[in-house]
Write a structure and sequence with these properties.
3 helices; OB fold (Dihydrolipoamide Acetyltransferase, E2P); Elongation Factor Tu (Ef-tu), domain 3; conserved putative lor/sdh protein from methanococcus maripaludis s2 fold; about 350 residues; alpha+beta
Length: about 350
């Protein structure tokens, strides 16, 4: 046992020598960094962000108006459909029988009315008998119209041009009125829907400008509030708004989850120029002026614009950060001189 301990000791010392000396993220200092360009981190009130969804302006949950067995489903998820195209057919034997029966009754009623009409002119039938025959004819014709209308219900047609996003039945299933069979998303314009907390009810109006943000990559689109539902839902204590995109190019697909950002409704946070960021492995930081030295500050970033990045933690407002730091610049470098570069942050320059 003692022999093993003696053999392990040199290995442990070698391992400590290889790993020790610096914490992860620390770098060696250099004597002089020369003249560096710096800008001050600025503070801005971030916009309040709420979850949103991008949907087609036209969408429909299609259901039948009559009960029946599904005979054929002519489309599937992802199918492109045209307005008026037949999508689903119900078994129609019962409907056709009803139409044939109504047609026969209408023929009998018409013949009865015509015969009594002639008899009434010859004085062989009373006016009352003729009126009853006319009422029977009108009833038979109404029943025939209803039966023919029911024939149309066995074919489910597309209400507009779009794409099938869900198929909820198969041949042989029972279709029930009001139960969705297909879901269709229109191929036209898109809109954004979001449920906002009641605390924002007094701050959102039709015509307000908002930003639609894709959280995974920070991509942004300008939009305008087109509808505000003036009722707060009791269980969630939220109200719904809708917004339309200002431009119809390069938009995300319908069904994409996003966030709506309302300018000036969030907390203040620090922002720095995008070109001030440095990366060391998985860490992101900036160099700041500390007396006559440049020190690394590891930061946690948030949203980005075209030329700036939000700092969620690790940096205070007003700190001087180095612009376009040299790739070889290391922590603790002596700043020979600093030159302040004017920089104005614009929260509306985002993407």
């Amino acid at each position: 046992m003692k022999r093993y301990a003696i053999l392990l000791a040199p290995l442990m010392l070698a391992s400590m020598a290889a790993c020790g000396g610096e914490e992860p993220g620390e770098v060696d200092s250099v004597a002089d960094a020369g003249t560096v360009l710096v800008s001050a981190a600025t503070s801005a009130e971030s916009g309040a962000q709420v979850p949103a969804r991008i949907v087609a302006r036209e969408s429909a949950n299609l259901a039948t108006r009559a009960s029946g067995t599904v005979e054929a489903v002519l489309v599937d998820v992802g199918s492109t459909v045209r307005r008026g195209e037949v999508l689903v057919r119900l078994e129609a034997s019962g409907v056709e029988s009803a139409v044939a029966r109504a047609e026969a009754q209408a023929v009998v009623a018409r013949r009865t009315f015509d015969r009594l009409s002639n008899l009434e002119r010859d004085g062989a039938a009373t006016k009352q008998e003729l009126d009853q025959a006319e009422a029977g004819l009108r009833t038979a014709e109404a029943v025939l119209d209803e039966a023919r209308a029911a024939r149309e219900y066995v074919a489910l047609r597309a209400p507009f041009y779009g794409t099938v996003t869900a198929r909820l039945v198969d041949p042989g299933d029972l279709a029930v009125p009001g139960r969705p069979i297909l879901l269709i998303s229109g191929a036209g314009d898109l809109k954004v829907e979001a449920d906002l907390p009641a605390s924002l009810a007094d701050f959102v109006s039709v015509g307000d400008r908002v930003s639609v943000v894709r959280p995974e990559n920070g991509e942004r689109w300008a939009a305008t509030v087109s509808r505000v539902v003036p009722v707060i839902e009791l269980s969630s204590h939220r109200f719904r708004i809708e917004a339309t995109f200002d431009e119809a190019t390069d938009l995300p697909a319908a069904g994409t989850f996003a966030r709506i950002e309302l300018a000036g409704r969030g907390e203040r946070s620090a922002w720095v120029p995008l070109d001030a960021l440095v990366r060391r492995g998985q860490l992101t930081g900036v160099f700041v002026v500390a007396g006559e030295s440049l020190r690394v500050r590891w930061i946690r970033t948030g949203r980005r614009t075209d030329d700036a990045v939000e700092v969620l933690a690790g940096l205070r407002e007003g700190a001087l950060v180095v612009r376009e730091p040299d790739p070889g610049l290391v922590d603790g470098a002596h700043a020979g001189a600093t030159e302040i570069v004017a920089w104005v942050f614009s929260p509306d320059s985002g993407r």
